[in-house]
Design brief:
elongated; 2 domains; 3 helices
Length: about 80
């Protein structure tokens, strides 16, 4: 690449910022292992599941806007509907 000094510096900064942003995304979407939930009609089963999920989210400091997305991945059977 044959950039001028300022153009080359701008490119380096943009490239660095893009890599940094990608690394931060990987940190904000942790690979958490959540228990599955099948939609059991017993409210106590749901409350136990919810407590375990919230505990896991707190440990991994999952962002509020990611919680529903991650938890819904663990819905199975009736809970998916």
């Amino acid at each position: 690449m044959n950039y001028g000094c300022q153009e080359e510096e701008d490119w380096r900064v943009q490239n660095y910022e893009a890599r940094r942003h990608h690394q931060q995304l990987k940190k904000t979407l942790p690979f958490v292992k959540l228990p599955s939930f099948n939609g059991d009609s017993n409210p106590n089963v749901y409350l136990e599941w919810k407590a375990k999920v919230e505990q896991t989210f707190n440990v991994y400091e999952v962002e509020e806007d990611q919680k529903v997305k991650l938890a819904s991945l663990k819905f199975e059977d009736y809970a998916m509907q």
